[in-house]
Design a protein that fits this description.
Layout (H helix, E strand, L loop, with lengths): L5 E4 L5 E4 L10 H4 L2 H10 L5 H18 L2 E3 L3 H6 L8 H13 L3 E5 L7 E5 L7 H8 L10 H18 L2 E6 L6 E6 L8 E10 L2 H7 L16 E8 L11 E4 L2 E3 L5 H4 L11 E2 L18 E5 L3 E3 L6 H20 L8 E5 L3 H12 L3 E6 L5 H7 L4 E4 L3 H5 L5 E6 L8 H4 L2 E9 L10 H5 L4 E4 L5 H14 L5 E4 L4 H9 L6 E5 H4 L2
Parallel strand pairs: 15-16, 15-18, 16-17, 18-19, 19-20, 21-22
Antiparallel strand pairs: 1-2, 3-5, 4-5, 6-7, 8-9, 8-13, 8-22, 9-10, 10-14, 11-12
Helix pairs in contact: 10-11, 10-16
Length: 513
Amino acid sequence: MWLAGRVFRVSSGANCTGNGLIGAATASFSRYFSRERAENLRKINPKVSFPEANSIATELYDVVKQHGPITIPNTWAQAKESGVSGLNSKTHMKILLKWMRGRKMLKLFPNQVGSNKKFLLCTLPEDPHVTEFINSTAVKVQSKKPSSKKKKQKQRRCKARMSEKGNCIGYAARDPSGVLSHYEFSRRDLGTDDVSIRITHCGVCYADVSWTRNKLGDSKYPLVPGHEIAGIVKEVGSNVQRFKVGDHVGVGTYVNSCRDCEYCNDALEVQCVKGSVFTFNGVDADGTITKGGYSSHIVVHDRYCYKIPDNYPLASAAPLLCAGITVYAPMMRHKMNQPGKSLGVIGLGGLGHMAVKFGKAFGLTVTVFSTSISKKEEALSQLGADEFVLSSDQEQMKGLVKSLDFIVDTASGDHLFDPYMALLKTSGILVLVGFPSEVKFSPASLILGMRTVSGSMTGGTKDTQEMIDFCAAHGIHPMIEVIPIQYANEAIDRLTKRDVKYRFVIDIENSLK
């Protein structure tokens, strides 16, 4: 095994015998060194087995955690000279060192006084003993102003390292546990029709839960979630006319489509015959896997970008790109914007509270249905609903039979449909935007009252831009809880428990570093 029997120098001044070497960045080691990652290493070097890699990583982490920073060889030649056994090749060593650098456990410095060889300091991130250790063991090297030639060489090397690491940082899930952690990757180069956007905010949608945890069975890891994106244009392609540098823009649930079918031609790209390309976990035209808004920037064809008025907060704009348009599009399609009509909203979450806000802006009489009496005060006082009904109260439900023109059903939990269908007037319409596991109702609920049941997802580019403009003009803002990206895992856990009012929005600009 690598460095078997080698005595390391540690910051405490004690000696310890190390048996292995590879890195992890946090105490939750098993989250970041999964079997999948070991298998990826084996693709590069088949001689590395999972048990060996796991053992090496665990041992090194324990050594550093217990004793503090240690020094290790920086090159294959130094490793051989130090009597290291178990290394298969230079490639093997490079891979291991690269992993430790990725976990930010390595720093390069001259090892000891009198030595002209550079070694690596292996430490945990932000170890308080690092500075003390370097000062006590490192050579004091007098700084020299680099020559112009050396400076250019250094810049080229830095650029090459950036290219290798990637030009974008974000948070990604590596496996079905859904745990998100720091991740570096590359966005595509700016095309003639593209817009490069510096992301400032990204909403947290239940879709993020579904795909990070592989609930649909098609997640492609590493997976960067997020499709409620708001930000600022930092660069545009030569053919782009609608946007300029500095504009506030949004990106929603899809970033590409065929642009040639009847639906694309009708600005209903979300229904593209060949399938729209999802903002994350989708397969783009060039075969790459799309990565979403839990990241520093994104490059998108300008057709799928939306103008956000300068006076509308970017944090508020983010949830409009999924939660907002998901209810706005069917409400407009089914003419639910007629003042004086009556609307029922089932469920009071990210989608439901937006349906209430739109309903009131359209001049509708709005009734909220919920299984939780605790939502009553929120619905009536904070959101301005006209009535609140506890859906488990049969007397209340019977009192509203044939009283509603429209119902928007945002509930994703399984529930009965016939009791709600009975509340619709003749020719009334129920639109389902939630995702229960099944939908069952009596044919009589449809036939006898000439009622309609319709489904809907998000909207096309035309509807989305119209919705953003409508919100800005009427002062409609989602109710949000702004969080740093480091809180993303907790936020997703809370979302699964419905513990949010009513949308988490990640402050990418001020927290993702």
